[in-house]
Write a structure and sequence with these properties.
With 264 residues, the chain is of the alpha/beta class. The chain contains ten helices and seven strands. The protein has a seven-stranded parallel β-sheet with strand order 3-2-1-4-5-6-7, with helices on both faces. Helix 4 links the parallel strand 4 and strand 5. It is globular, with a radius of gyration of 18 Å.
Length: 264
């Protein structure tokens, strides 16, 4: 039986990955900050699907947390066949007005922890000539987003990084996938500071986290480097930057996003 390690596993897309992989008889290592939520989820998945579920309570926005996760997995003698780097967050507002420590935490979680975990677990997969890594990026990775500047930039990094690793590792049997969800029914907008009314008025359909996960796993099975989930609207969205002058696109996005936040 294979084992998957999922970061940000206590809610949203991460929790849905846990449920879907458990259904597929995959043992799990769940990583997040909330011990109570993780323990409750682990108990439920273990009872329902008769799998082994380990819980690691770590805040990956803190330096050293990714290494602590790797060391804990090693000490338990576990082999990670699938790494799902899902943990991440956004923060709405003009960059100069936002708290610097919050932006640095975002970079630490969205980029640094993801790179560290990938670098720690990838060599073992290469040695076995099997394994897979799913890095959760976003449709935000395809263009700059004013008022979500650091978040969009961090996801652009994840997309570029993942596609490069996909090409590097094809010959050794390790699959790498960047999954790029659009608007999804999670707490992301609330945590980032979006107005619910603005988010709800979006022309883009909100996908369920179940849709995102199923499309991601299907793309992984096909050894695709990238999966833009959520249907035709998101496919149009990610291809607009190829068709419009960058100045025109960023100016239009700035006007749209200016009114979306709840905080100044």
């Amino acid at each position: 039986m294979q084992t998957a390690l999922i970061t940000g596993a206590s809610s949203g897309i991460g929790e849905t990955f846990a449920w879907e992989l458990a259904k597929r008889q995959t043992n799990l290592i769940l990583v997040a900050r909330s011990e109570a939520k993780l323990q409750q989820l682990a108990q439920k998945l273990g009872e329902d699907f008769k799998i082994k579920v380990e819980v690691l309570v770590e805040d990956l926005s803190l330096p050293g947390a990714a290494k602590a996760v790797f060391e804990a997995v090693t000490q338990k003698g576990l082999t990670v066949d699938l790494l799902v780097n899902n943990a991440g967050f956004g923060d709405w507002g003009a960059f100069a007005d936002r708290q610097l420590h919050r932006q640095v935490e975002m970079i630490q979680l969205n980029i640094v922890a993801l790179v560290e975990l990938t670098h720690l677990f990838l060599p073992q997969m290469q040695q076995r000539r099997s394994g897979a890594i799913i890095n959760v990026a976003s449709t935000a990775a395809f263009q700059p987003l004013p008022y979500l500047s650091v978040y969009a930039a961090s996801k652009a990094f994840v997309l570029s990084f993942s596609e490069a690793l996909w090409a590097e590792n094809r010959a050794c049997g390790v699959r790498i996938l960047a999954v790029c969800p659009g608007p999804t029914e999670t707490n992301f907008a609330k945590n980032a500071g979006f107005l619910e009314s603005a988010a709800g008025a979006s022309v883009w359909r909100y996908a369920s986290s179940e849709e995102v996960v199923l499309e991601a796993l299907q793309a992984l099975e096909k050894d695709q480097p990238t999966a833009v989930t959520g249907g035709l609207a998101n496919q149009v969205l990610v291809n607009l930057p190829r068709l419009l002058p960058r100045e025109t696109l960023v100016s239009a996005v700035e006007k749209q996003f200016r009114s979306f936040g709840t905080r100044q």
